[in-house]
Amino acid sequence: MVIAGEARGAAALGQHGEPAEIGETAAWLLSDASSFVTGAAIAADGGYTAI
Predict the structure, then answer these.
(1) Which of 17, 11, 40, 16 is nearest to 28 (CA)?
(2) CA atoms of 13 and 44, how far apart (whole Å)
(3) Can you spell out the DSSP letters for the chain?
């Protein structure tokens, strides 16, 4: 089990994301601005999967 402090340090940005940040990603994907994006996995995880 990962506790909050360990998880926070594991992300490249060193912080937890806020629900609004995930919502902004979802809103962008639903907008015309992302019309050229197809078949992509968008990792909105503060860099957690990059390290």
Answers:
(1) 40
(2) 12
(3) ---HHHHHHHSTTSSPPPHHHHHHHHHHHHSGGGTT--S-----STTGGG-
| Cα angle: 23, vertex 9, 14; to 5 degrees | 50
Q: What does pTM read for this prediction?
A: 0.61
Domain range summary for the chain, segments of one domain joined by +:
4-50
> Average model confidence (pLDDT) for the chain?
79
**pLDDT band of 51, cuts 50, 70, 90:** low
